[in-house]
Write a structure and sequence with these properties.
single chain; alpha/beta; 8 helices; 52% helix; disordered N terminus
Length: 237
């Protein structure tokens, strides 16, 4: 088992569009004063997540091996003990391209039960299984190239062309972000269920975080849509 605590050392990024050179991860929920949160102790958080990893990791890795070709399915799961301000979990790649899933300590402490941790872990593993990082990189690159070509064809100066390429890359990276999240919710529910957890109970996590709404070029879909995706998936299991 590769679940350990560590001071964050890999290059990090957001949940579904992470790359080794991307900016820091975006929080799943907006930080709030600790006095308003119901937190378990760090010792309880470690024990709970370790228990969940022991059951969910082999299921996720088997689904990865059964449904991919040429993909590294050996998940490296960490808890960032230094991050106590942001409640977040995300999947990324380290500098050698190996899949990494990170829970911040605050999220581990905030989880109400094992089912929530199992669903979140399944969700992050699903991002890797579905290949969302390389897909996001491809759409970002294509968006940047297309914007640059159009700007050059219109006779824009080099400085403007560069800015438009950056904008095109940003739009490209966001184009399928919500779709990726729903895909990860669906497969994450399956992974949690096969590991013996209740994905519906796990998805109650969405009832406690701010609803991003249906924002243009937002990274996450509305919470209600995500809960409905899990309900629909669970009904089919």
């Amino acid at each position: 088992m590769r679940f350990v605590a560590f001071a964050l050392s890999v290059a990090l990024a957001g949940c579904s569009v992470s790359t080794a050179s991307a900016p820091p991860p975006q929080p799943t929920a907006a930080p709030a004063p600790a006095t308003k949160r119901s937190l378990v102790s760090e010792q309880v958080a470690y024990a709970r997540l370790e228990r969940v990893v022991l059951r969910v990791e082999p299921v996720a890795e088997k689904i990865c091996r059964d449904n991919t070709t040429g993909v590294d399915c050996n998940l490296n799961i960490f808890i960032d003990e230094d991050e106590t301000r942001i409640s977040n979990a995300y999947q990324t790649l380290d500098r050698q391209g190996r899949p990494v899933i990170v829970f911040t300590m605050l999220l581990a402490q905030e989880a109400q039960n094992d089912d929530e941790l199992a669903f979140i872990l399944g969700h992050e593993a699903a991002h890797h299984i579905r290949g969302h990082i390389p897909q996001s990189q491809t759409t970002a690159a294509f968006g940047g190239i297309l914007a640059g070509v159009l700007a050059s064809a219109a006779g824009a100066p080099a400085s403007t062309t560069g800015a438009l390429q950056d904008l095109g890359g940003f739009v490209g990276s966001r184009s399928f972000s919500k779709v990726f999240e729903l895909e990860a919710d669906e497969l994450g529910a399956i992974i949690a269920a096969r590991a013996g957890y209740d994905p519906l109970k796990g998805a109650e996590f969405f009832n406690r975080i701010p609803d991003p709404g249906d924002v243009f070029l937002g990274t996450h879909p509305p919470n209600a849509e995500r809960i409905e995706t899990v309900r629909r998936t669970a009904a089919q299991l």
